[in-house]
Write a structure and sequence with these properties.
Structural class: alpha+beta
Shape: elongated
Strand content: 15-25%
Strand order of the largest sheet: 2-1-5-4-3-6
Length: about 240
């Protein structure tokens, strides 16, 4: 189960989970984008270039915490791998798998991680301030390394007709959207026409929701005013 790790000095946290299929796991807090748990270190980490994918996973976690990526379940393609994300109850569970790994099985794995974290006292998780302060969870990961085991085949065959409603995106598009958003914000701030608060994702959602309603109301008022004026003119 998840347990707080003992404090260790000068130790850099690593997030690598490797095997036949499941490569990387990160569990993070949505409120601030802090990664709190990780997979065990793999001896060939540098050869497999997992540090790059770890950084990409942390970047996506930050985008989720900003509200840019809102679906509770999503898959994000990156090279010949695929990141799977499950967001629930204030936490984000993510795993990097080879693109051939069954999507349904990947989400079974994330749901197992979700149940494991649910055993921990909430106040303990809320007080975490250092990245990756929880013990690794290799035992759960071992069950999902090979999709061809009897247990995993049974999970895949159960409810075979059930389709997962999952948004699929490409990492390059997410990075491009992030870059465009930063450029637009710099332009607006440099022009002095808008303060930084108006560039928040929350206010963008509010604007998209209420702008059409406001326009409709203004048009209705103008039409009503025109009707009243014309009516008075006809009376005279």
């Amino acid at each position: 189960m998840f347990l707080p790790k003992k404090k260790q000095r000068n130790r850099v946290p690593l997030v690598v989970l490797c095997g036949e299929m499941v490569k990387l796991t990160i569990v993070g807090r949505v409120s601030d984008g802090l990664p709190i748990a990780q997979g065990p270190r793999y001896v060939n980490e540098e050869n497999d270039n997992m540090l790059f994918y770890k950084q990409q996973g942390e970047f996506i976690l930050k985008e989720i915490s900003r509200g840019v990526l809102s679906p509770s379940k999503m898959s994000i393609r990156i090279d010949h791998y695929c990141f799977y994300f499950l967001v629930d109850n204030g936490f984000c569970y993510s795993t990097l798998c080879e693109s051939s790994y069954p999507r349904k099985l990947a989400f079974h794995y994330l749901q197992d991680l979700q149940r494991e974290l649910g055993k921990v006292e909430p106040r303990i998780v809320e007080t975490i301030s250092r990245p990756y302060s929880f013990i690794r969870f290799g035992n759960i990961r071992k069950q999902y390394l090979d999709a061809r085991t009897q247990a995993n085949l049974s999970k895949l065959n159960a409810n075979r007709r059930q389709e997962l409603d999952i948004m699929t995106e490409d990492i390059s598009k997410i990075i491009e959207n992030k870059r465009n958003s930063e450029i637009l914000q710099k332009v607006l701030l440099s022009s002095g026409t808008v303060s930084s608060i108006w560039c928040s994702p929350c206010l963008e959602v509010i604007a998209l929701k209420w702008t059409p309603i406001t326009i409709i109301l203004l048009v209705s008022i103008v039409l009503l005013w025109s009707y009243i004026i014309l009516s008075e003119y006809n009376v005279f």
